[in-house]
């Protein structure tokens, strides 16, 4: 094992001595502060590269920014999360910020603990993707750190939200299936029971956790046979065909 002296971390003072400038000048270069000349910046950064200097994220966080963004997921197996991470990484590519990913599982308690850990590490912001935490827990996080919540329609003034249009999305799916000539359409979601009228006489009213189209199988009827293009759109909700009762 190497001795402690052999692995001593290069400090800002080392960089300052090597570049022949003050530690304050090095600090300004690190912070991209206003008023630093191009020559000074190049001189200091050349010394950093030659010495192998790495900024201490925790120390930077105490002084201001840590230049890290936390991305909190419930798991890493969802393909959508990979696409989302690519987007965040691309957006930060030309900045000094880095994204650090944390997978906390589906439990609200573990997600809350991980969010607290990101805050404790002085991250500059946090992105919560479809968090299982309660509204009050998310608001509590957002009061401490700039927060973006993805995939929750339960918005709040304390954080920014990124959501899709579920009704328009459902309409696009139904339009596509009808265009392909599929007369029977169904939407399934674990744990959600169908609340559509079995007689097909009443329009489906989506609940807070339901898609804007019935979560059960439908059959064609005379109205659909005579009007094959009659289906949902983003603005209309015609009566449903009869629904096969659940068994």
Backbone structural class: alpha/beta
Question: What's the end-to-end separation, in Å?
Answer: 67 Å
Annotated CATH homologous superfamily of the largest domain: Response regulator
Number of strands: 5
| Largest sheet: number of strands, sense, barrel closure | 5 strands, parallel
| CATH architecture annotation name of the largest domain | 3-Layer(aba) Sandwich
- Quote the average pLDDT: 75
| Total DSSP helices | 9
Number of domains: 3
User: How would you spell out the order of helices and strands?
Assistant: HHHHEHEHEHEEHH
- Enumerate the spans where pLDDT stays under 50 for 5 or more consecutive residues: 192-247
Which fold does the CATH topology of the largest domain refer to?
A: Rossmann fold
Helix fraction? Answer: 25-40%
Instruction: Tell me the overall shape.
Output: elongated
CATH top level of the largest domain is Alpha Beta
Determine Rg (CA atoms, Å).
27 Å
As a percent range, the share of strand residues is 5-15%
Strand numbers in spatial order across the main sheet: 2-1-3-4-5
Helix/strand layout:
Elements: H1 12-19, H2 23-30, H3 38-51, H4 57-63, E1 68-73, H5 79-92, E2 98-103, H6 108-120, E3 125-129, H7 135-142, E4 147-150, E5 160-162, H8 166-179, H9 222-226
Parallel strand pairs: 1-2, 1-3, 3-4, 4-5
Helix pairs in contact: 1-2, 1-3
